[in-house]
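Researcher: Please translate sequence to structure tokens.
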Amino acid sequence: MTYLPLSEKEEMIGKAVVHAAYQIHSELGPGLLEKVYEACMAHLLRKAGHEVKRQEYLPIHFDGLIFDEGLRLDLLVDDLVIVELKAVYELNPVWVAQIISHLKLTDLSLGYLINFNVPLIKKGIRRFRN
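Model: Translation complete:
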């Protein structure tokens, strides 16, 4: 699949997301609730100078209508990058489909699905492009 190149800003946000995930996982480890990782991730990204929206609702446009109860994103960083967080034993394929759909519906180019319930965080980070 061919993608348009990411902007410098998107690449910078992506690096900050991955760095924050490594920092959180090395300090807290696996086994906590998703909302704990979400709060820590939002904190570190804000500390790094990013605008972070948590549990952001975005409307769905369908058939000429707007449905406000559309999407709920765990984190939206600088209105450019979606971050979906999990703290589960095994990722469900529906979560992969979900982030791909979120990227398409928001017309954003970059998203991450991060599962903190892994022994090595590099095994829990997945990057997605639209």
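Researcher: Any highlights?
Model: The domain at 8-129 is CATH 3.40.1350 (Trna Endonuclease; Chain: A, domain 1).
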